[in-house]
Amino acid sequence: MFSWYATEARKKRRAELRKPPKFILAFFSTRTMIKLFKVKEKQRELAENASGGPPVKKQSAGELRLHKDISELNLPKSCTIQFPNGKDDLMNFEVTIRPDDGYYLGGTFLFSFQVSPIYPHEAPKVKCKTKVYHPNIDLEGNVCLNILREDWKPVLNINTVIYGLYHLFTEPNYEDPLNHEAAAVLRDNPKMFESNVRRAMSGGYVGQTFFPRCI
């Protein structure tokens, strides 16, 4: 009786020794899953390209998020968005702002947006293409807007940025300037600032600087 149990125990131990360790099974299981995933991904790409057209370009996470942002835009009539490179290049676009209130009433201001593939973890790069006399926009088109710098967070979106730009025209801020001369005039003499803005938008000189007409 004891001999039979001992024999069975030895057989069981030998069978266990022949089995691969559990971590090896897990390793091969993971490798198999990765291979299957790659095969399915390749099959999907082949199916998408089966029509004979050009290969379908994979969209980055930034493009997918930007597409969502654009589809959910809720802008005032004074702000419009354009895609000069067509629908295949959503990452570079333009926004036109026509303020309907404040110092810049009646002006037309064009901004370019360049969006990173890692958006929204990086703020879009924004430049003002219209030369403007403004305390928060310098003569090279750089824009001083806190949400484009240290206050940017991934929960913000393109709609937020456009509204921020719009409010720069309705409420220019002399406390955080890029054009220090314009900021000083706004702070010390708002009437003169208003006169300078109208002269610049009409196409004329403010000091030694010429501004093309944008009104």
Description:
Keywords: ATP-binding, Nucleotide-binding, Transferase, Ubl conjugation pathway. Residues 61-206 form the UBC core domain. The chain is α+β, with helices and mostly antiparallel strands. Helix content is 41%, strand content 12%. The protein is built from 6 helices and 6 strands; from the N terminus they run H-H-H-E-E-E-E-H-H-H-E-E. It starts with a helix and ends with a strand.
Draw up the topology in text.
Blueprint: H1 2-18, H2 22-48, H3 61-71, E1 79-82, E2 92-97, E3 109-114, E4 125-128, H4 158-170, H5 180-188, H6 190-201, E5 204-206, E6 209-211
Antiparallel strand pairs: 1-2, 2-3, 3-4, 5-6
Number of E-type strands: 6
In the sheet with the most strands, the strands line up as: 1-2-3-4
Q: Separation of termini? A: 107 Å
Broad CATH class of the largest domain: Alpha Beta
Q: What is the residue-averaged pLDDT? A: 85
Describe the main β-sheet briefly.
4 strands, antiparallel
Any idea what the shape is? elongated
Q: Can you count the helices?
A: 6
Structural class: alpha+beta
Radius of gyration: 31 Å
- Helix fraction? 40-55%
Short description:
The chain folds into two domains: about 1-50; about 60-210, Ubiquitin Conjugating Enzyme (Roll), CATH 3.10.110. It has six helices and six strands. The chain has helices spanning about 1-20, 20-50, 60-70, 160-170, 180-190, 190-200, and strands at about 80, 90-95, 110-115, 125-130, 205, 210.
